[in-house]
Amino acid sequence: MSHKNTEKNLVGQPIFKQILQFIPRNKFDLLVNKHQSDRYYKTFDSWTHLMTMLFGIFSRCDSMGEICDGMQGLAGKLNYLGMEKSPAKSTAGDGLRGRDNEFFKDVYFMLLEHFKSVLSVSRIDNVSFAKLFIFDSSTIRLFSDIMKGVGRNPKNEGKKKGGLKVHMMIDAHSDTPEFVKISEAKLHDKNFLQYLNLAAHSMIVFDRAYNHYLQFAHWTEQQVNFVCRLKKNAVYQVEEELFRQELQDGESGVLLEEHIHLIYKEDNKQKTLCLRKVNYRDDKGRIFEFITNNFEISREEVAFLYKLRWNIELLFKKLKQNFQLHYFYSETENGIKTQIWCTLIAQLLLQVLRVKSKSKKAFSTIAALIRIHLISHLEIFWMVQNSRRTYTKQKKRRKPPWIQTELF
């Protein structure tokens, strides 16, 4: 026989309010004053706007109407959030159209700086670089012409899907975005390398879509390290073979290492870029060609650094699977960008919760718990750490032999 442990750790505030308390209100208000983001709004101020967006994102609402109806259904619980009533759909829509998405961008980076000490507790093993960044982009398709998409024009006068690209650089150690730029999907990826502000002796990893030899030369001068794949049609000259080995069938490892020269143009002059090329075969038999401007780390670490690039793919997948980026709450470019910035804020707050609670649960599990218990009055850290029901086993007592329980 077993008994359920029904003990619950209840507090006086819903989960949603406890998450919002992670945000330093004094720093938030400073940004409101900087952007004058409440200047033209009487009831739907910046804080109410952020609360409304986060409520919709955490509860995975499909539209602004659904968010406002859902908040209206909370009735008396809105007073915990400092709200007298749910915002009207038209008011929230006006806020998405009018309030500059740059304000929410600054809120995100303010939170990132505020929680830097919390998120920097982890460190990837077998990596020589304290500052390790991964850069990539992900396309989000839109069924509208708000932002121009990618791909060929459809046949039979069909409508081409609009789209946007989220260009992102993450800190690989803390798994948090440090640089984000949102653009139309048609813009080429390599144009965004120029916006990255990287410190000397840092390392950045990216895919071959970002091959830009002039930028590589500038980074080399600035002592910024990089690892990426070599383009298939790249033209280069082998200066020296540094290493070669034969591998057995099914064996993975470095096949070849070479010192190569690439030609690039600057101010209409041809210049030479010295790089290191490493050929690596994985356990599936696929061969990858990596290039780097670092000649000091081991060739195995070059391959390992590129393997870490998969972490940003997982982050994009995490954002798309756990938050509502299939439906947008506005038909304007400003509103769409605002939703993306608020989604990144939501992801950052859950990452902080995961680190602070020292939970080993998957991010998707924590996101689901928040969605289910968003207005429950459970203590948030207790909920994350003890979400599964526990059972206390009790030993069965033997009945005395003189008690006869059966007739035969």
Brief synopsis:
With 408 residues, this protein is α+β, with helices and mostly antiparallel strands. The chain has helices at 15-20, 25-35, 46-58, 64-72, 89-98, 101-114, 116-119, 213-221, 299-307, 310-322, 333-356, 363-372, 380-385; strands at residues 2-4, 132-142, 162-171, 176-184, 203-206, 225-229, 236-244, 253-266, 269-281, 287-292, 391-393.
Write out key terms for the chains shown.
408 residues; alpha+beta; nine-stranded mixed beta sheet; two-stranded antiparallel ribbon; 13 helices; 34% helix; disordered N terminus; Transposase DDE domain-containing protein; DNA binding; transposition; DNA-binding
Please tell me the overall pLDDT: 86
Distance between the termini: 25 Å
The total count of helices amounts to 13
Spatial order of the strands forming the largest sheet:
4-3-2-5-6-10-9-8-7
Describe the biggest sheet?
9 strands, mixed
Proportion of residues in β-strands: 15-25%
Low-confidence stretches: 1-5, 149-161
How much helicity do the residues have? 25-40%
What is the global morphology? elongated
Radius of gyration, in angstroms, nearest whole number: 27 Å
Could you give the count of β-strands? 11
Content-based structural category: alpha+beta
Helix/strand order, N-terminal first: EHHHHHHHEEEEHEEEEEHHHHHE
